[in-house]
Amino acid sequence: MNTACRMESSGKRDHIQVTQATADLLKEAGFARWLIPRSSTILVKGKGEMQTYWVRKAKEPVAKGCDLKSATSLTVDETIESDGAESTGGSSSECGLDAEGIHALRKTERLVEWDVAVLTSLLQQIIASRGGFVNDITVLSTEEMSIGTNGTVLEEFTPIIPMKRFEVEDLQQRKQPSAIEIGETVICQLRGYLSNVASMYKDNPFHNFEHANHVTASVKKLLARIVNTDKINGLAKENNRSIVKANGVDLVDLAGHSYGITSDPLTQFSVVFSAIIHDIDHPGVPNSQLVKEDTRSAQIYKMKSVAEQNSVELAWDMLMQDEYEDLRACIYQTKEDLHRFRQLVVNTVMATDIVDKELQTLRKARWETAFSENTIIDPSGKTTKESETDQENRKATIVIEHLIQASDVAHTMQHWHIYKSWNEKYFMECYEAYQQGRADSDPSEDWYKGEIGFFDFFVLPLAKKLQSCGVFGVSSDEYLNYAMANREEWVREGEPLVKEYLAKYDRQQQQQGGTSKLTSYA
């Protein structure tokens, strides 16, 4: 009672103040960045001086003065490494952060602003594709509330998502995206939403907000490099085959692009959105450990794809809040588009569970079906011919799944120094879990051989699928070549690198005053 009274009397309007005990719980949960130590202690009767903390506001202005057009032209690596953006949180003395904390805060702000720019551009395309209008969506409120109430997220998964199909008249009414004004209200809602998303990522070495943006950058790159593989117009409805031009754009070429993935801005937005939110609240341990610990989330999600389902639910529930209604109205205007957006998010995020063997087997079968000779084999073994529309939808759905999978492990298919950096981060995360008693075995003992197996049985086959589907043009060759080169380099350099990882972890423990249980790596 004394503590509560003293905190109340020393508090500030519109500020949340927490005790050291609460701060310790937040730190343990991976949310240390939420905390700002007060510059002065408070005096509590019977307890003496006490350190308290302010909880950082997630919706404070981000990257003041940032130009959205210039931001969207940057790569995510340029955004992360940029030193020019100034923090709006003030100096380290003003906000109670050390230099490392200030750097992390500024990096997060830059990443949020980059995400704002990328999604704003896609929102312009969505609005342009429906003729430039954005109407009130209050009529959809009941439908919005009903989504996700009839089972788990994984149970919503579907093997075929119907892609948007357009009449030629629909394509003719499209506006130029550059002419669409999103408006400051929607921009502020988007920025607020993404800032909250960033705050819901834990301070894991690997599964963090920076990783989410690395995945997003790869998704953006692959979407931009999709090429037209369709022999006919796979998107326009079948009774409209005439070639029509509007504003100098070949509308049939636009409609028949890439199994319908890039011709529909809502599909692109959904995949990029999914990349940003796919690891929200990731606990820093695999699903198998959550199942073993019989956590509450594991029970809720029936011991399957626990982290992935949790991320979808947290991100979706937040988006459905009243304060983001204008943002949602830009994303969808109809019941059909609402459900398609939800389905794309569910399928895309669920595809990032690459460890579950059952899901992987089903995914492999769907790929083989999609890229077979347009035939379907039913449970009885009977072979039937698939319709052109179903074939295109099936291909689009499975290509999206593999696109996000490739992006989720994009570091394995990029320059060696990028791969090495992210590999070290993932090792540190797994090793920290082991030190905390949340892993059965020391990951350092099998890390070298395990990476070779990961390349041989997942990364290289995935890169070859990207190449064989013919959708991603030269990018698929680039990804495969980097993957093969990184495997070869790891075979040569992997063992001494693991020793370096262990030594670095040991140094970090000593600097933090902790004790390390490091064992020698043989």
Short descriptors:
single chain; 522 residues; mainly alpha; three-stranded antiparallel sheet; two-stranded antiparallel ribbon; 55% helix; globular
Secondary structure topology:
Elements (H helix, E strand, L loop, with lengths): L1 H8 L7 E2 L1 H9 L6 E3 L4 E3 L3 E3 L2 E3 L12 H6 L2 H6 L10 H4 L3 H31 L11 H6 L21 H5 L11 H17 L8 H16 L20 E2 L2 E2 H5 L9 H13 L9 H6 L3 H5 L5 H14 L5 H7 L3 H16 L6 H14 L4 E3 L5 E3 L2 H21 L7 H20 L11 H22 L5 H38 L11
Antiparallel strand pairs: 1-5, 2-5, 3-4, 6-7, 8-9
Walkthrough of the structure:
With 522 residues, the protein is mainly α.
Helix % is: 55-70%
What percent of residues are in strands? under 5%
State the shape: globular
Please report the distance between the alpha carbons of the first and last residues. Answer: 55 Å
Assembly context of the chains:
single chain
Uncertain stretches: 59-66, 81-95, 229-257, 516-522
What's the Cα radius of gyration? 25 Å
Strand order of the largest sheet: 1-5-2
Number of helices: 22
Number of strands: 9
Structural class of the helices, strands and pairings?
mainly alpha
- Could you describe the largest sheet, including whether it forms a barrel? 3 strands, antiparallel
Whole-number average pLDDT?
A: 82
